Every structure is written in structure tokens, then in C-alpha cells.
Amino acid sequence: MSAPSTKAIDLDHVRFRVPDLGAQSAFLSDFGFAVEHEGDRLIGVVGDGTPAYRAEAGDARFLGFGLRVPGEGDLDRLEASGAKRADDRGTRCAALRDPDGWEIRAVVRESASQDAGIARNEGGRFDRGTGRYAPPRGPAHIMRLGHIVLQVGDFQASSAFYQDTFGLLASDEVETPDGSTLIGAFLRCDRGPSPADHHSVFLMQSPDGKARFEHAAFEVRDIDSLMAGHEHLLEAKRDHAWGPPHPMAGNR
Predict the structure, then answer these.
(1) Phi-psi category of 87—alpha, beta or left, where left has phi over 0 and alpha has psi -120 to 50?
(2) pLDDT by residue (tens digit) across 44-76?
(3) Cβ distance 68 to 104 under 8 Å?
């Protein structure tokens, strides 16, 4: 295997087309995003200032996602291998297509600092002291885009693309019941000695060979923010799918 073109260090954003920008704006606000409007585009901003969710008007469709890379040299190497330079809301990036045709953007972005949240007493630490602990009611405080899950048309081709182009590494793999064929992989960013999430991208072979977006997961500040956001969504009459317990797959 040749050296990857770059080593992605994190996810950056997801992009969609949606038929009703007004309805989607209301949902994003209930979910916890700071919502911005740019003409016929919708931007959902998370706690560190990243525009982590983007949508444009049109038939419902997943368009692609962004991976954060360390610097300008990474964009140069991707451009040399066929990526197109672009501007992502004033941020330098390079865009290319994965085997399923989704547009993947490599983005150079500096993140702002996060709100530290509410001081608490736990595990021998007494940051709160004797003060009152009252988690705020309302939407969750979203910190960042945590991971995305994709069904892909050709798992082997997609896995090779993300590992060879962006240096993603397999944390866990999924086999057919007889163990003969790999059909899925939890891929993490190669951050060297620095800690990394168990996975940023999970790829799974589509049963019918048609590529599909499964879901995107966003990290919130803490368990209290998760539960407050959950209650807020229920109060807003949003349809509940599952959770909040974490599924076993990839739970490391």
C-alpha cells in the first residue's frame, strides 16, 4: 500500500439537499445548531464555530462530507492527485469524488475554543463546590460532528479510497457470517500519538449495491446536555427513532 495523499485529522461537515429549507431550519434549531441562512442555503453551526451541517434547496439527497486536514501542503498533494481546489465559506479546501460519486472535501480549518460547560463534582474533583447544579433546559449543546455511517456500492473500493487518500485506519472490521469476506469497517483518523475517536467514518456494503447515507452523529457537551436535548426534541414533537443508549457496534 502506498503512502496516503494526506492524513485527515477529523470530520468537518456534512452536506445535503432538502425540499423545505424552512422546516429543516426549525429542526436544526430544535436539535441544537445555531442556524444561519445564505440565500438558498442553510448552515448549522456547532459550538466551536464550525459550519458542520449544510443544506441547499432541492430534492432530498446526501451530497457528501468534509474531512479536516492539517495544512495547505495537504491540499497541494490532493490537487496533484486530481482534486479540485475550491472555497468553502472562505476556508481553503480541495474537492474530489469517492467511488460512489459523493463529493468529499478536504478542509483546512482552525477551531475556536469550546464552552467548558457547567462545573460539577465527580470522581474526587469538586469544581462545583457547594454551588447549585442545574443543567439548563433546551436544545443540546453540540460540540462537533462525531461520525458518519454510509452504505456503499463496493466496500473494498470505498475502504481503499478513504485509507489511501485520507490515511484513515480500520479500528474494527465486519465480516460475513462465514468469515470469508469483509463487508464493513469502522475507520478512524490517524492522529499519531494523539487520541482519536474509535471511528469517524463507518462503511458498510449495501445489500443491493446502491449507495445510501445512513446517519450522522454529533457529539454534545456531556450526558446532561444529551438528556436535555432529548427531552427538548420530545417536547417539540419530533419523531423519536432510538436511543439515547449507545448501540454495541463500535462502542469502544
Answers:
(1) beta
(2) 999 888 999 999 999 999 999 999 999 999 999
(3) no
Q: Which amino acid, one-letter code, is at 127?
A: D
Distance CA(93)–CA(103), nearest Å, equals 12
Are 162 and 201 in contact by the 8 Å Cβ rule? The answer is yes
* Assigned C-alpha cell, 157: 473500493
Buried b (16+ CB within 10 A) or exposed e, 18-45: beebeebbebbebbbbebeeeeeebbbb
What pTM did the predictor assign?
A: 0.88
Contact 218, 52 (CB under 8 A): yes
What are the start-end ranges of the E strands in the chain? 10-18, 34-38, 41-45, 51-57, 61-68, 84-88, 91-97, 103-107, 121-122, 125-126, 142-152, 169-175, 182-188, 201-205, 212-220
Strand bridging mode 121-122 / 84-88? unpaired
Tell me how long the chain is: 252
